[in-house]
Amino acid sequence: MKPGIIVLTAFEGDVKITTTSSSATSPPSKGAILKQGQIIVTGQNSKALLAYENGSVMEVRASSKFVIQEFQQSPWDVSPEKLKEMKTEPSKSKTTVFLEYGDIIAGVKKLKPGSSLDVSTALGSAGIRGTDFAASASKNSNGTPNSFNVGVASGEVGVSSAGSTQTVSVPAGSSSNVSMPSSGTGQSGEVPPPTTSQLSAEAGSNILSSVTSQRSGGQAVFSQAVVAAAQNRESASDALSPAQQKTLKEAAANGDPALIEAVINLTTESPLAAAEIASAAAELAPGVAPQIASAAALASPTLAAQIASSVARVSPFSAAAIALSVAQAVPASAADIAGAVASVAPSQAPQIALAVATALPESAAAIAQSVAAAQPQQASQIAQSIIAGVAGVNTQAVGDAARTAAEQANSTNSNVSPPPPTTINTIPPIPPAPTPSATPMEVRSPR
What we know:
The protein is of the alpha+beta class. The protein has helices at 80-84, 201-238, 242-253, 256-269, 274-284, 289-299, 304-314, 319-329, 334-344, 349-359, 364-374, 379-389, 395-413; strands at 2-3, 6-12, 15-19, 22-26, 33-34, 38-42, 47-52, 57-60, 64-73, 93-107, 116-120, 124-128, 132-139, 145-154, 156-161, 168-171, 174-179, 195-198. α9 packs antiparallel against α10.
């Protein structure tokens, strides 16, 4: 199996994305590819919708913190036709997510033998086989775990308390709950076992309605994004020899430092393949994508911009950090690097410009020009982000550079027929969330 593709098909309100290895947050963008190790945090009246390559969908509801711990899937023939007709999981997969607090509603296609999908919390876990369900986790005011719930609208879920090897089967139309006593633990210091009860008809209906809406509303975005990501993944892998692929996989198994060292060695041996080596490594360890990109750029500096954009394409969440890291490694190419990354991560263009200009203020005007040329419709925001965020820059030069680049780009584009309209921004509204009391949840202990 290899890292699977997860698409952010839609979001509403205050949604932040970060990683388990960094406290930096990034704004979401519809159609973005999410990775293992990323964390989704939603505010009040907010939500984020995820669609997985194996056919699963998950809605992260308001006031939640959700961690994508692992998503691996065996290669398969990804195509628009196959995605449209997908009735069951197309190939074996392994998914582990952690719900620190809040609520999710998910629909899981029937999994193949050997596949697994586990939802975990501090108090327990739920194993999914092919189910429409809701899960929730809550905390006390002091931050200690309070309860977790799971409600099953279709299929069946196995729920167990943290530290227990016993699993309680929760069939469709039922819910399960684990609640900590006021003392914090039971008499033996263990988390109490799950209790089961009937799921209300309203709660079950709300779960099924949400899953149906997620699938129909996000299909266009999911298909477009997952096909493109699969093509990028295959092209990066195909460009490497079997020996290079084996080296990266073995290094990744030994930890991030070993993987970065392998990238340096492979890039030194094959500098013309630096972009492919770096992007393949970033797929294995998205949490250290910026370090991987800069390591490859140091070994092959003439390809720094290509390396940065290739890695940002497979790890778009870290685009600004990737641009910064590579620009610091090869400062002479800072402007080209910022523009190249902005071309593959348009929603982060102002942040990319600011990050690189902050590190290299003497190149602020050139950076503004390059990023604005890549994203001319955002020229004003790009210039303002640098002017407001970087002390001592020549504001006139930065503004003029961004404006001139945008005018030149727009002049060039005016001679080209516009592309046909895309369906990415036409997702229908998501139905309102059911009340918290109506949607039980499920969970699993972190590993």
